[in-house]
Write a structure and sequence with these properties.
Elements (H helix, E strand, L loop, with lengths): L5 E5 L10 H11 L3 E5 L5 H6 L1 H4 L2 H4 L5 E4 L2 E4 L12 H22 L5 E4 L15 E6 L12 H14 L2 E4 L2 H7 L6 E3 L6 H5 L10 H4 L5 E5 L8 H10 L4 E5 L17 E5 L6 H6 L3 E4 L5 H5 L3 H9 L3 E4 L2 H4 L6 E3 L2 H13 L4 H9 L3 H16 L1
Parallel strand pairs: 1-2, 1-5, 2-4, 5-6, 6-7, 7-8, 9-10, 9-12, 10-11, 12-13, 13-14
Antiparallel strand pairs: 3-4
Length: 385
């Protein structure tokens, strides 16, 4: 095991966001004695103005420098950047020109001189080789060129190609990403997402009382956990909710601006319960009768490896997912659907026959975060040899 190294993580999420592999790697490295500088996602001025109610102080947080949030782990907020940087190579390069000295300053504040650069941002090629890093890794967790919002696919794909060509190692989370990125990379390896098996297994234990917000809903409860994003297919939810007004649909997680919740607005049996602390999420899942993973079948869905699928399996609850590649791996223990009618019928079948909870949990046990981190550590060790 490699210890006492410095890692700088260029993240696509704030530290306060729903926890993903980015947060887990950061914490794992810090706990084993390495030092970690976690750089939060870039926010542009248009995004800041849209979220000014909750992000008013963000432009000033950079001035504080890196903040120690846990032993060996610092979090740093970048200054606000120009908008459209994911639509224009030129604007992105201009932003990076101004961000590079800011990153160097943050590194000096925590005493980093030769870190391992761990990038999740596909538009960060300008930083590779410019931060004095000993190793550079791009961990690709989504097909960013298929994202919605202020993203121009060809531009972000060009930025990502440059990044892949420059880094020492690429890690992807899904087979489709491996297929598309392999021709561009010197070294590439797949490390899928994982699950905190013990944490979500609590959802199926008799001593876990369902959270009151879920327990109060009419049964059965069809449940969802995670960020409510543009990729959630609310056409499926609306169809099922209208077909079965006696069912309750509970979405546990923050609702993002691009999410098409207008498609279910006004339906009395669809409930948005907001972002919840990770520690109590199993209490919400405990109140679900069926868990859903309703990805839109598009370029994002074809390349994603949803965390929630692993979480659902670990809970032992029945699962219905749209027919994305990541879900097909678990077709023996979950139900798949492609259309709204199929989705509703799959929910009906899951309620009538919940299936083998123990089999789902055994499958989840093969995908622990501990095993995933060991694979990541082995990659770092090979690169350092």
């Amino acid at each position: 095991m490699i210890a006492h190294r410095d890692f700088i993580i260029l993240s696509t999420q704030d530290w306060s966001a729903l926890p993903t592999r980015k947060h887990r790697w950061a914490r794992n490295w810090a706990r084993q004695g390495d030092r970690v500088l976690y750089v939060e996602q870039q926010m542009h001025w248009a995004g800041w103005l849209a979220a000014i109610g909750s992000e008013f102080w963000r432009p000033f947080r950079c001035l504080r420098g890196p903040q120690l949030v846990e032993p060996n782990l610092w979090v740093f907020t970048l200054p606000i950047v120009l908008p459209f940087f994911q639509m224009s190579v030129a604007i992105n390069r201009l932003n990076n020109f101004f961000l590079l000295p800011v990153l160097r300053w943050a590194m000096r504040r925590v005493g980093f001189t030769s870190p391992i650069l761990w990038a999740y941002t596909p538009h960060s090629a300008d930083f590779v080789g410019a931060l004095g890093e000993s190793i550079s890794v791009y961990e690709c967790v989504d097909e960013f060129s298929a994202s919605k919002g202020l993203v121009y696919g060809p531009a972000i794909a060009a930025m990502e190609r440059e990044l892949i060509a420059k880094v020492d190692q690429v890690i992807v989370t899904a087979p489709a990403l491996l297929e598309s990125k392999r021709p561009l990379a010197r070294r590439i390896e797949t490390v899928p997402n994982g699950v905190d098996v013990e944490h979500f297994a609590r959802a199926s234990r008799p001593e876990t009382t369902p959270h009151p917000a879920v327990a109060a809903l009419p049964k059965p409860v069809i449940g969802f956990i995670g960020g409510v994003q543009y990729w959630v297919d609310f056409d499926l939810t609306a169809h099922a909710a209208r077909a079965h007004p006696e069912w309750s649909f509970a979405f546990v997680g923050p609702v993002e601006p691009l999410a098409r919740i207008d498609k279910v607005r006004g339906l009395p049996n669809v409930h948005f319960l907001g972002k919840q602390p990770y520690a109590i999420v199993p209490q919400f899942v405990a109140g679900f009768d069926v868990c859903i993973n309703p990805y839109v079948l598009d370029g994002v869905g074809e390349n994603v490896d949803p965390l929630k699928l692993y979480d659902y399996l670990a809970s032992g609850k029945p699962v219905v997912s749209t027919d994305i590649p990541a879900a097909r791996r678990f077709a023996d223990v979950i139900r798949l659907a492609r259309t709204a009618d199929e989705f509703t019928r799959a929910l009906e079948a899951a309620l009538a026959d919940p299936g083998d909870a123990a089999a789902r949990q055994r499958m989840a046990a093969d995908h622990s975060w501990e095993s995933r981190f060991q694979r990541v550590q082995a990659i770092v060790e090979r690169l350092s040899a």
